[in-house]
Amino acid sequence: MDNQDNQTEDYLSQIAHNFGLTPGMSIQEQREQRAEANGLTFACEGRQPVEDIWLIHPARQYRSEAYSLALDIAESVGIEHLVEHVVKQPVDYTYTMKPANNELSPSALTLYSFLSMLQTAEHKDENSCVLDSNFLFELDDITLVKLFRLIRVSRHIHQQGGKND
User: For the chain, which residues make up each domain, given as ranges?
Assistant: First the structure.
């Protein structure tokens, strides 16, 4: 192998690393392997399977992941119709929460508040979230893991100032 081939191979390895990909393995195989290593095989389902709560890859776009996580979380309490994809050009999967104009259960209201705080659309006002005392005991493990991941992804998006997401 000559020097140019080595440079090309190094370059391709760096690109794969930046996207969190392992050459020679399907994305599904990689996802399942990471989920097993992190004890999250049970949460590797839905629109946005979670195989790692904390890992952020520099080259990935995270708005689409946040949108899918928000839909999965909202669906767990029947409020997925309140998660709105904000149409932009180019498409970036920013989401916002529609106003809740009907009676929501305490758990649904708490998740609605969380999703409002974590929305990827620009915030025009301060959002707050009041926890119902039974919320954490009623929340299933899959939704809890997805909520943790959404918090991580939303923090990354906001820390980047909306760039590289």
Answer: 3-159
Q: Is the pLDDT of residue 164 over 50?
A: no
Task: Report the distance separating Cα 122 and Cα 37, nearest Å.
Answer: 35
CB proximity list for 88: less than 8 A, separation 6 or greater? 94
Q: What is the rounded distance in angstroms from the CA atom of residue 25 to the CA atom of residue 23? A: 6
Which 3 state secondary structure label does DSSP give 135?
Answer: helix
Tokens of 137: 């005991």
> Given the structure tokens 């997401």, which residue do they identify?
165
- DSSP H helical ranges for the chain: 3-19, 27-37, 63-75, 106-118, 135-138, 141-159
pLDDT at residue 23 greater than cutoff 80: no
Report the C-alpha gap between 64 and 153 in whole angstroms.
10
pTM: 0.80
Arithmetic mean of pLDDT, 76-90: 89
